[in-house]
Design goal:
The protein is of the alpha+beta class and 133 residues long. It has 2 helices and 10 strands. The strands form 3 sheets. Strands 1, 4, 7 and 8 form a 4-stranded mixed β-sheet that branches. Strand 2 and strand 3 form a beta hairpin. The termini are far apart. The relative contact order is 0.17.
């Protein structure tokens, strides 16, 4: 009788951790440029609820392993409008996101033309003939 109880208790201990593993889901997908469809590299994908995040690879792919439930993904990259996307993750989910540029290419070109920098250097001689910068 004791052996049966010990065996059942041991099986119960093995089953409980397996049930908790089933609470994790994957959220994966791609991030691309909304204006030309090209994959975006190094885009930040961050779950605001859990604090877990990742970045996209050179193909725009990302994958997050999160607990089941509500997920608030913040997706951002410099030069693009950030996106906040809510997902009720009850199973593995694929999410494809298109980020829109902050300004058009013509506007970006005009802005780049307006940037002007000038560097002036002065050279002074000290008493021993060395140049100081």
């Amino acid at each position: 009788m004791k052996t049966v109880l010990i065996t059942q208790f041991a099986l119960l201990l093995l089953v409980i951790p397996g049930m908790s593993w089933a609470q994790i889901v994957s959220i994966s997908g791609y991030v691309n440029n909304g204006s030309n469809g090209k994959a975006l590299e190094n885009v930040s994908i961050f779950d605001q609820n859990s604090g877990i995040g990742t970045i996209t690879n050179q193909n725009g792919f990302y994958k997050l392993m999160l607990d089941k439930g509500d997920v608030d993904l913040s997706i951002s990259n410099g030069g693009f409008k950030s996106v906040l996307h809510h997902v009720n993750a009850i199973s593995d989910t694929t999410l494809v996101v298109s980020l829109q540029p902050l300004m058009g290419s013509k506007d970006r070109q005009k802005k780049n033309d307006q940037v002007h920098a000038e560097l002036k250097t002065e050279k002074k001689n000290d008493r021993k003939g060395f140049k100081l910068f």
